[in-house]
Amino acid sequence: TGALPAISGANLTNLAGGLVAQARHAIDTSTSTQFNPIGYVDKLTLTVSNVQSTSKILLFYRFGLLHSGSGTTLGRVTGPSLFGGDTQFSVASNPGSQTFSGVLFDASSSTTREFKIQYADNGGVNSTISNCELVAIEIKLS
């Protein structure tokens, strides 16, 4: 948990060697409640187009989850080819407010990449997910 690092042109250009970085950003500050124990629901999608096929992407994510009820909220942050697979989160026995954040590495060779924060409520749950944020930093050989 905690704040994401500041993303600016100044600190993106200080990468070592011949690497170049470009930041792409999407944020959804609306709230949403979903009762869907079968599948996942997209809360926020970031599509990164015109990516070099050899580029790698660092994906920063952050969102808040307010959880109440006796069931479970399950979720995941997905991408085309995340190193180590999709990252998952769940909230069950400790209802309340939580913040989730992290960094993922995408190694896809696609020139268009789609990243999502998805979640589903199961049972007698009322969850609200808010302030979702995705920041993709494209790293490519110059």
Notes on the structure:
The protein starts with 8 loop residues before the first helix and ends with a strand. The chain has one helix at residues 9-12; strands at 19-28, 41-48, 56-69, 72-78, 87-91, 96-106, 113-122, 125-141. The protein is built from one helix and eight strands, in the order H-E-E-E-E-E-E-E-E. The protein has 142 residues and is mainly β. Strand 4 (72-78) and strand 5 form a beta hairpin. It is elongated, with a radius of gyration of 16 Å.
Tell me the layout of helices and strands.
Blueprint: H1 9-12, E1 19-28, E2 41-48, E3 56-69, E4 72-78, E5 87-91, E6 96-106, E7 113-122, E8 125-141
Antiparallel strand pairs: 1-8, 2-7, 3-6, 3-8, 4-5, 4-7
Keywords:
142 residues; mainly beta; four-stranded antiparallel β-sheet; 1 helix; 3% helix
